[in-house]
Every structure is written in C-alpha cells, then in structure tokens.
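Internal ticket #5521
Category: modeling
Description: The requester needs a full-assembly model to guide mutagenesis choices. All entity lines are attached below as received. Residue total reported by intake: 486.
Assigned to: D.W.
Attached entities:
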Amino acid sequence: MRFLTDCKADATADLVYRACPMHLLEPMELIKDLEPGQVLEILTDYDGALEDIPAWCAKHGQEFMGISEDACDDCYKLYIKKISEARS
Amino acid sequence: MKRAYMDHAAATPVRSEVLEAMLPFLTGRFGNPSAVYDLGSEIKAVMEEQRDKVARLIGARSEEIIFTSSGAEANNLAIKGMSLANFQKRGRHLIVSAIEHHSVLNSARFLEKWFDFEVTFLPVDHYGRVDPGRLKQALTPATVMVSIGHGSNEIGTVQEIPELVAVCRDAGVAFHTDAVATVGQVPVDVKELGVDLLTISGPALGAPKGIGALYFRNKLRLVPQLNGGIQENGRRGGTENIPGIVGLGRAAELAFPELGENAVYLAKLRDLLIAGVRERIPHVIYTGHPEKRLPGHASFCFEGIEGEALIFRLSSQGIYGNTGSACASKALKTSPVLGAIGIRPEVAQGSLVFTLNRDNREEEVHYVLSHLPPAVENLRSFSPVWRQKMAEVAGAPK
C-alpha cells in the first residue's frame, strides 16, 4: 500500500457508515463525471475497501494512487486518478 | 348512525388518488429496484421520481431523502444514526424536549442505556413551547444533537423551530425535528426551518401505513439502524416498499398545491369546534397554544371525568377522538405531554383530542357539539371527583 501526503482531490465520495459495496458503486458513478487526470477521494470506514478499491482500479484501467497518511479519526482516505474513460 | 371521525393523527384513510397510483405496483409492476434487468431498473426510476416529489414538498434535494417504514423508524434513524455517527467527535450528550413522541424519547433512552449517553429532557412552558434561552443553557461542548418536534399531535402546539435552530447553529450542533404532525398540514420548508434532519410520516399525508421518510441535510453521516445492502444508498437495508413509496410520492404531489387552502379550511373547523366546546361545557381546559397550533387540532381536558370513558361513550355515537397519543391512551397512562405542560394528573385524565383532516365537514362538528356536552355531563353525574370539585366550588365542607 502506497501512503500519500498532502493529497488534493477534484471530487470526494463519502462512504463512511454506508453498507458494502457502496464503497465501489458510488466511486464508479462519480468517476464518470471526472476528466482524465482528475483525482477522486474516497472516505470509507470499511476495511475491505483497502483491497477492493485497488483491485477495482486495476480491473477498470484507473490509477490507484494510495492512502492518505493524514490522520482521519474514523475513516480511510483513498485516492484514485482517472486514466481511462472507456473502461470506468 | 352518523359518523364523525376526528382521530386522523392516529389513522387516516388512504386517499383514492394515492391508492390508484399504488395499485400497479402491487400487481404487474412488482420488480425489485436493485435488479439490473428492465423490470428492476424501471422500478428504480419510479422510486427516484417519488423521492423527487417528497423532496419538493419540503424544499429539499432528492438525494437528501431516505425512505423508511414509518415516522418512528425515521426518528430512530435520525437520533440513533446521527448520534452514533458523531459522538466520537462531539460527545455523548443529547437534548430532546419533554413532549416528544415515544419514538424520539425512547431512542434517546436507548442511547442512555446502551451507549452511556447523557440525555437532557428539556422542559416546556404551559403551551408546550421550548424556550430558546433554556435550550442554549442546556447545550454543552459534548452535545451531539438536539431533537425537538415541529408540531405536537397531543396538544397541537407548533414550535418556533428557526429560533431553536439558530441557538444550535451558533454552537455547531445538529438539529432534528419530528415533523409528522406538520408535513402535509402546513407548509414546511427545510431551508426556512434550517433543520439538519426532519421526519415525515406517510399516513399523515394520506399515504398508507408502513411508509415514512427522513430528510437529512446532504453530506451528514448516519449509522444505519437497519443493516442490510445497498438500498437507500447503503443507509437503510431492506427491499424497498415500492407501493408505499409510490403512495407517499403521490400523496406529497397532491398535498403540495393544497396546503394553504387546506390549512385555512381546517382552522375554520377547528375554531368552530373549540368555540362550541368552550361555550357549552364548563370547567374545561383548552390545551396547547391558542394561535401557534396545527390547523386541524383541538385538544381539551374535561375536569372530573376519565378520557377513556368519554372516548367509549362518544364512539358509541359514531364520534371518534383520542385521549392523547394512540399508544399512551391504550396503556391507560397519564400523558407525559400533559404533565410537562403543568396539567394536574387528575385533570389530565379527562383529556380529549380531535384531529381533523380535509374529509371532515362542518356538519360533523355540529354533530360532535350536540353529543359531547351531554356525554360529559352524564359522566360527571356519577364521578366522585366531580362531586368533590363541585362541593369545593360551592364552599361546602368536604
């Protein structure tokens, strides 16, 4: 897992306390509205997201940038860079 | 026998237009909105149209509406879901008013019992209003949220929610209001009220029992209280009650243009009823605020009698009212709401509440006014409490 500092995002998906697999479904929708090169921030308290989101990025041709090192009291912050239009 | 049904806060008939809209979704259009094939996706689209209609009724955005099974569930989700999502940042202190519905009071007590929350049950004045100054005094740095109902179904009083919200906003505390009694009765706009969460009940609008909704300001976090799948965007599990949702959407759509006219009509019937009761029956206390009250709500306490006996007597003549909230009256308990507004227990026993809706007619009010006074007089004639009171009034020795 790659750890990031000073992360900037163009959009945020707040999935904290929301049932699985919303941590995949909502980012899939939101990334459609981004331009290639833009970054989506995902906030989630679901441990499984740490595996699922990198795997989803690999499968759908997006770049999983990593997880924020910034303190987040109740959630993880993961970052995806949009690469591909067609496969998202 | 003539009939005058005036207990619409307890139950109300489904509007014919609502039933008509619902029927296809009980038969041919039965798909599950989570299914990916067309029978499901078209139902999903219908469901989102209903969300738009409910949102429009209260000035919200559709993504700020969660469908629930009832107003009680929406209150549970608002109070437990919001408190549990935020107590780690804010603290374990919760404020509710002393005259809330049981679903609010018992959600607060649940957090007190199982999660070590401290709950402040805020007192009200003799009209049932919460004083913004007292609310401000009750707030602490650990207060996670405040829940104060918009209108009381027991005494009819409508709170000045924007004033109370302003106090909480200054302190950065979230505000929930149970608006089951007001949405569909009077114009309600979440932006004008300034609330973060607001509870809606379907039956109050002429939708069937088994459907409600919670407004939550966009981006608020809630811990689901019904764990399951991705329904309601992962905030409330369970396959959606599509017929009920369609019913609520249609009821909201019908209510929107009717609100102003309905409120004027109901207030006219209410005032006729209240004036008639006060004119014809001595020793009656009119509960709740005289002006800032629900348009279709009339509530009284008749001294010297038991409300339950009066309800039975009236129902034998086709007149249906209640003695308070439906659940409290069945338990034969003195209403905590009446206690909170300073009504003495022996007087609170004689509580009678009429809640009207658009189907009620003036002739029904006259029917009630012709049968209520003799019923009260008859019950008082064999009441020892009443005889004692009369003896006291006359100055006779006890």
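Resolution: model delivered.
Comment from assignee: Residues 77 and 225 of chain B are 6 Å apart (CA to CA).
Ticket closed.
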